[in-house]
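Quick note —
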Amino acid sequence: MKKFLGILLVGVLVSATTVFAQDLKFGHINSGELLSVMPERDSARVELQSYSQLLQKEIETMQVEYQNKVNVYLEKQETYSDLVRQSKEAEIQEMQQRIQGFQQTAQQDLQQKEAELFQPIMDKAQAAIEKVSKSNGFTYVFDISAGGLVYFSEKSIDILPLVKKELGIE
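Predicted structure written out below.
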C-alpha cells in the first residue's frame, strides 16, 4: 500500500510539473533596438546636444579669457614688480582652477540632464513591455540587448513587434 501511494504521489508530481511547465511562456526583446526607434529619443538627443554645445561654448569662452590673460602676462612680465607678478600668477592659476572646476561640474550636469531627458522614455518603454507581457501571458521576458543571455530557444517569442505596436511605432 505504501509503495502504491509513493508511486501515485510521484505520478501526480510528474504530471503537475509537466502541466506547470507547459504553462510557461517565454519572450525576449532587444530594448536597445526598441529605444532606438522611439521618436521621443530623437528630440531628447537634440535637446541634450544643444545643452552640451551651450556648456562647451562657455568653456571655450573661459579658455579664451584665460589664454588672453596668459598672453598679456607673458608680454609684460618683465615690466611687473614682484608683487604684481605674484598677483597676476595667482590670478591666472585661480582662473585655471575655475575652468577645471567648471568642466567637471559641466560633465556632471550633462550626465544629469541626459538622465532627466531619457528616463521618461525608458519608463514608457518599460511600461509598454510590461503591458504587452501581461496581456499576452508571458511568464518571463528577457532583454537580449545587454548580451547577458547566452541562449534562447525558438520557442521564446520576440515581443518587439508587439511592443512597437503598443507604442504606435511602425
